[in-house]
């Protein structure tokens, strides 16, 4: 089996399972990130995914397919990463009130509970470090590499759509697909998967921080993020 066929089969199966779980079990408990079992389940899940991606990449030149190499330019990567952040902020402001992607996913708590802080931090490590590494290798690494022979923009769009579908969400699909496509564009410009891991991790970390902050703090965090993006961009 070719890497393309194996990766496509992997995405189809994974997306099908994600939607099946979502439609049969519904949204997870809002306090799931306060539980240590979530940490264990997440680590097991991403370990399995990593092994599958590693095995598929082994059907070809593994390091090349996974784009495990130094980016051609960290400055270009930084600029594109900032543009992705700004673009997602605009998209969220425009479509968020209509689609409510965060409410659909339903994994972030409404209030901060200090007694569960360490479990939340541990889950944060999984979400902000482990998940970006594995997902970037799976989609912007392997996925982009097997699809780029069909054209750069074809690969960017298909990787974005595949990334969105793999999460098993409906209302959040446009946001996830756009984010995935943005990261795929970043990969295409710098020829490396490493910058995408960083941008992906920072994006997830911001979401987790905003989720447990009160409304005034949320506004301050968002203003701070916009300020940082503006300073770096100009």
Structural features, described:
The chain is mainly α and 234 residues long. The protein has one domain (3-233). Helix content is 77%, strand content 0%. The chain has ten helices and no strands. The protein has helices spanning 3-25, 36-57, 62-65, 74-99, 101-105, 117-147, 152-166, 173-190, 194-211, 215-233. The chain is globular, with a radius of gyration of 17 Å. The model is unreliable at 215-234 (pLDDT under 50).
Helix count equals: 10
**Total beta strand runs:** 0
Low-confidence stretches: 215-234
The percent of residues in helical segments reads: over 70%
Rounded to an integer in angstroms, the radius of gyration calculated over CA atoms is 17 Å
- The amount of beta strand, in percent, is under 5%
Span of the ends, CA to CA: 47 Å
User: SS-based structural class?
Assistant: mainly alpha
How many domain regions? 1
* SSE string, helices as H and strands as E: HHHHHHHHHH
Largest sheet: none
> Overall 3D geometry?
globular
Overall pLDDT = 86
């Amino acid at each position: 089996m070719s890497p393309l066929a194996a990766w496509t089969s992997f995405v189809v199966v994974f997306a099908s399972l994600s939607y099946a779980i979502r439609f049969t079990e519904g949204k997870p408990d809002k306090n799931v990130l306060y539980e240590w079992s979530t940490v264990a389940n997440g680590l097991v899940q991403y370990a399995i995914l990593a092994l599958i991606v590693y095995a598929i990449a082994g059907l070809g030149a593994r390091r090349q397919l996974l784009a495990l190499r130094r980016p051609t330019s960290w400055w270009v990567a930084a600029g594109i990463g900032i543009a992705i952040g700004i673009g997602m902020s605009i998209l969220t402001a425009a479509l968020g009130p209509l689609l409510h992607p965060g409410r659909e996913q339903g994994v972030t708590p409404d209030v901060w509970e200090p007694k569960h802080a360490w479990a939340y931090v541990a889950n944060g490590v999984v979400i902000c470090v482990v998940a970006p590494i594995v997902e970037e290798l799976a989609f912007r690494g392997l996925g982009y590499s097997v699809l780029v022979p069909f054209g750069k923009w074809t690969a960017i769009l298909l990787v974005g759509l595949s990334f969105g579908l793999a999460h098993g969400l409906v209302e959040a699909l446009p946001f996830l697909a756009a984010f995935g496509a943005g990261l795929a564009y970043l990969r295409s410009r710098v020829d490396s998967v490493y910058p995408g891991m960083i941008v992906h991790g920072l994006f997830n970390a911001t979401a987790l921080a905003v989720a447990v902050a009160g409304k005034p703090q949320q506004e301050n965090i968002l203003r701070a993020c916009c300020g940082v993006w503006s300073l770096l961009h100009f």
